[in-house]
Amino acid sequence: MKCLIVEDASTARMQMGIFLSDHFACEFAENGVEAIEAFNQALEQKQPFDLVCLDIMMPRQDGHETLKQIRQIESEHGIEGLDGVKIIMTTALDDSKNLFGAFREGCEAYLVKPVRRGRLLEEVEKLGLLSLSES
């Protein structure tokens, strides 16, 4: 399985990569613009991502806009509903406006930083992408 980790802070980006590398081939983007490029490239190569961990506050393009674009790209490719990539928003923002906005835009989970390994893997398991009892 493949995961795209979109995070502008290098320490958080690498930490999530370490948490997920036992279960996913991880790729990285530092902002939403890079994330959209990587997402499109993966679709073109017919090797789409199974999971995207997406920070909200980033330079160039934030996570909300990136999430909307990912869902639009999927729609243009005939990918709808449960067939889409699973997206976990990661952010320091613990307010209802960002939380509800992210779910409205199409994310499946929302984690407040600092992201902990156990909590992240628990969310990935809830999304049906791994079974912790087998790890």
What does this protein structure show overall?
Helix 2 (32-44) packs parallel to helix 3. The chain has a five-stranded parallel beta sheet, sandwiched between helices. The model has no long low-confidence stretch (mean pLDDT 92). The longest helix has 14 residues, at 63-76. The chain is globular, with a radius of gyration of 14 Å. It has 135 residues and is of the alpha/beta class. The protein has five helices and five strands, in the order E-H-E-H-E-H-E-H-E-H.
Summary tags:
135 residues; five-stranded parallel sheet; 5 helices; 5 strands; globular
**Uncertain spans, ≥5 residues at pLDDT below 50?**
none
Reported for the largest beta sheet, the result is:
5 strands, parallel
**Can you give the helix content as a percent range?**
40-55%
Q: Look at the structure and give the mean pLDDT.
A: 92
Task: State the end-to-end distance.
Answer: 15 Å
Radius of gyration: 14 Å
Number of helices: 5
Helix-strand topology string: EHEHEHEHEH
Give a short overview.
The protein is of the alpha/beta class and 135 residues long. It contains five helices and five strands; from the N terminus they run βαβαβαβαβα.
Task: Please write out the topology.
Elements lengths: L1 E5 L3 H11 L4 E5 L2 H13 L6 E5 L7 H14 L9 E6 L4 H10 L3 E4 L4 H10 L9
Parallel strand pairs: 1-2, 1-3, 3-4, 4-5
Helix pairs in contact: 2-3
